[in-house]
Write a structure and sequence with these properties.
four-stranded antiparallel beta sheet, 223 residues, elongated, alpha+beta, five-stranded antiparallel beta sheet
Length: 223
């Protein structure tokens, strides 16, 4: 009887050990699952933070007002805006934005030249109630401190000129022969509301909406 009772105790201990091992295994699996979920959540949070930081560092702000210049087109109507100037700077001192232009101004003739097609990473779109241009022609010049490259760094300011119509240095257009990225026979005349969207390679879109006055001088301030 002693041997039988002893053997029964051994069986009970084995069953308890099996149950204990099962609990340990289940707890380990649960702990691993929780840990993996926590690491995944942390990684996603870091990615969101880095992505937001990159967008902030790659965003630009408008500095000052918007200046428009009248061209010689649409003289039978109410005139026309040929180019628009904006001054931009970085939103964050730590970022950079590539302002390499696809268009430049010939230093001799003053003509607008498509000198480096496709080199612009920054795009400027034009839109109004009737027409839109996804990638306008634009040129850049620098004001104040600048280190000599085409990268907009912290503390630098760039003056971007958006060309709505072609200019050969002395004559605008003719609009009838213009193709993208110009407006052609579509004119920004008096009382005209339009929007420029400045889209950096990585960063928030800067939307600039303005309405032209009832009369177009040669230089028009669009506050």
């Amino acid at each position: 009887m002693y041997e039988i009772v002893k053997r029964q105790k051994g069986i009970t201990g084995l069953e308890t050990a099996i149950i204990l091992i099962a609990f340990v295994v289940v707890s380990a699996v649960l702990a691993y699952t929780v840990l993996s979920a926590g690491l995944f959540s942390t990684q996603k949070s870091q990615e969101a933070v880095y992505s937001s930081l990159q967008k902030v560092q790659g965003s630009i702000n408008l500095k000052g007002g918007v200046t428009a210049y009248r061209d010689s087109l649409n003289e039978g109507g109410n005139g026309s805006i040929g180019r628009v100037e904006i001054t931009v700077a970085l939103s964050s001192e730590a970022g950079q934005v590539d302002l390499t232009p696809a268009y430049t101004i010939d230093p001799q003739s003053g003509a607008l030249e498509h000198s480096a097609p496709g080199s612009n990473r920054l795009q400027i779109g034009f839109s109004d109630s009737e027409k839109s241009v996804a990638d306008c022609a634009w040129t850049v010049k620098w004001t104040g401190n600048q280190n000599g490259d085409n990268m907009l760094d912290g503390g630098e300011k760039a003056v971007i000129t958006v060309w709505l119509h072609y200019f050969d240095g002395s004559v605008w257009g003719p609009a009838e022969n213009e193709n993208a990225p110009f407006l052609g026979t579509h004119y920004v005349a008096t009382g005209h509301t339009f929007t420029l969207e400045v889209r950096p390679p990585s960063g928030a879109v800067l939307a600039i909406q303005r309405t032209t006055p009832d009369f177009l001088f040669n230089v028009v301030s669009l506050e």
